[in-house]
Specification:
single chain; alpha/beta; Rossmann fold; 9-stranded mixed sheet; binds glutathione; carboxylic ester hydrolase activity; serine esterase; S-formylglutathione hydrolase
Length: about 290
């Protein structure tokens, strides 16, 4: 599948490509950004997928996350997908409130909806996008499908954790490592997640359980497992108490005797890209080590 290069921009020592392509999964045109580092690595360059949070486009983290410096330093590519399909035609009887920024466009929740045919972000991010990139010109030098890790913020942190865990149980192609900034860690138990699952699934929250990182990690399949996960959340995040449920995730990890999961609660940090960009170097070094780059 081919990608249109809308812009090629010099950033740090590499190139940023603003791309669009036709997606079969979401039945429409999708935008994404791809950063190709200035690396002369042996073999293909590994990839980190960055999954953004509510209201974001591919540009928020590209412009405010400062991952590109780290990508040059360690030698990985970065894919910044969009957070939902765009220009969606909603079924009239669905009565969708398009002013609600936590549902619909910009709020795809990385799931496959069984109510809205365009909202298949799970299939798009886990399958179609890596495969399409791999078949493109970029796939000649970059490994989008195997030597790959995932990182995300807020709703995207939920997606990153859920995808990584589903890779461990071989439901999807595995990721080497996972990190999350202020993830929505227990979405079946917070307003954003409950509203989203009720909106996207016929069976509502029940159907959302299979995407809930806290519920997945406390299942028997993960008992005593050794994982590669890094989570950072700020305790001045306005969503810390109401939405993120970091403490429930920590308890699930401890109760199930899981190793290799670090959860750091950082004093004074909020939910913004000032927070994300502060911890980007630490998260990138973590992934670089797991990807065998250092
Ligand atoms: N728009 C919401 C906030 C939504 C929000 O904080 N989104 C986060 C992800 S959950 C984000 O990354 N926003 C875009 C940005 O900061 O650039 C509000 O008015 O409170």
């Amino acid at each position: 599948m081919s990608f249109n290069i809308i812009k090629e921009i010099s950033v740090c020592k590499g190139k940023l490509y603003k791309l669009t392509h036709e997606s079969t999964a979401v039945k429409g045109t999708m935008s994404l950004n791809l950063y190709v580092p200035s690396t002369a690595s042996k073999g293909k360059i590994p990839t980190i997928y960055y999954l953004s949070g509510l209201t974001c486009t591919p540009d928020n983290c590209t412009e405010k996350g400062f991952i590109q410096f780290q990508a040059d330093k360690f030698g990985f590519a970065v894919v910044y997908p969009d957070t939902s399909p765009r220009n969606v035609t909603w079924p009239e009887k669905a009565n969708v409130d398009t002013n609600n920024w936590a549902l619909g466009e910009g709020a795809g929740f990385y799931l496959n909806s069984d109510k809205f045919e365009n909202f298949k972000m799970f299939d798009y991010i886990c399958k179609e996008l890596p495969e399409s990139l791999s078949e493109s010109e970029f796939g000649k030098t970059i490994d989008f499908t195997e030597r790959k890790s995932v990182m995300g913020h807020s709703m995207g942190g939920m997606g990153a954790l859920a995808f990584y865990l589903k890779g461990i149980t071989n439901e999807i192609s595995p990721y080497v490592s996972c990190s999350a900034f202020a993830p929505v860690a227990n979405p079946t138990d917070c307003p954003w997640g409950v509203d989203a699952f009720n909106f996207y699934f016929k069976d509502g929250v029940k159907a959302g359980e299979s995407l809930d990182p806290t519920l997945i990690i406390k299942s028997d399949a993960f008992k005593g497992k050794k994982l590669d996960i890094l989570v950072t959340t700020g305790n001045s995040d306005p969503f810390f108490k109401s939405q993120l449920r970091t403490e429930k995730f920590i308890r699930a990890v401890e109760d199930n005797n899981i190793e290799g999961v670090s959860v750091n609660i950082e004093d004074g940090f909020d939910h913004s890209y000032f927070f994300v960009s502060t911890f980007v170097p630490q998260h990138c070094a973590f992934h670089a080590q797991k990807l065998g780059l250092i």
